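Hi F.,

I've been meaning to write this up properly since the lab meeting, where we talked about keeping a consistent format for the predictions we share between groups. The idea is simple: the sequence comes first, exactly as it goes in, then the structure tokens exactly as they come out, then a line or two of notes. No screenshots and no reformatting. I'm using this chain as the first example so we have something concrete to point to.
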Amino acid sequence: MTMRIAIVNDNKGHLLMLSRILEKCSTHEIIWIAYDGREAVEKCRLDKPDIILMDLVMPKMNGVMATREIMAQSPCAILLVTASVAGNASLIFEAMGAGALDVVKTPIFGDRDEERDTDAILGKIRIVQNLIAPGKPLRSDNSLAENNNVHVETRKPILCFGASTGGPAALATILSQLPVDFPIPVVIIQHVDEYFSASFADWLNKQCQLTVQIARHGDRPEVGKVLIAGTSNHMLMDSQQRLVYADSNEESNYKPSVNVFFNSLVKHWDDCIIACLLTGMGRDGATGLLNIRNKGGYTITQSKDSCAVYGMPKAADDIDASMHSITPEEMPSFIMEFLNHNKQMAERL
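Output, unedited:
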């Protein structure tokens, strides 16, 4: 399958570098180039590519505004490719909230990270290529509901989120409404490049009263903390209820994968699981959400009209994995109501 790719960048050196990278792949075709966001919006309206490599800081219209306009008029996959990382975290995650798929560094010729940054771009393009290809039917794995491997007593429910395109804005909206004394641990799987995960955690930490940080290998979920997957490997829960980074036999376009994490919770978390699948391209998280529901968990998807991309939630809704389809603004009250109801039921026993 040939990928039709557009580049939006006002730096001629960066344009040359990106063009050379793409020209090495016979399945990649550059269909147009734009030198600012405004030009990109117009060109995308006339000829929509499979993916846009979008710079962040540009004249006339920056990458945030261009992303927002394109997703409203001619939605397609947008990958932020920027050399302007320092001091621009808020712009990066604002653009991702508006619908950008992910963010990578612009490769610089001769730089020590040139090979790593080049591989990151090509890897993200492969993910989009897999996402827009015809997919396999989704199904639940009922065997995951058998929970015989737990060796640590779980004392509280856990709240977990899976998100991709548009996720940062949705997560900021939800977490900002959770109280400082929120009574259960929170864990997030957001599709974001490892290089930017720490900046994402710092940015999100400023949006809420809870402490947001990258999960370290071996961490356990804690009340008062929001732990975020922070590497380009899968994060999952082990039999000791620790968060670990590891490979997985499960098929997935993404690392970290929402499905891999959700399914590990089904195996190893013996109290209630509250799982929310938010906006995102593709189908990651859908079968994991269904497995959580089948185990007796409380499952929520982001409603279609509130999604930047109604891909992951739609895949879950299509297989009846969700108990509620609601907006990010509504989720905190639904979650608190569920926790209060469970507390009252426990007090009666």
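Notes:
The CA atoms of residues 263 and 339 lie 22 Å apart.
Confidence is low (pLDDT under 50) at residues 147-153.

If this format works for you, I'll send the rest the same way.

G.
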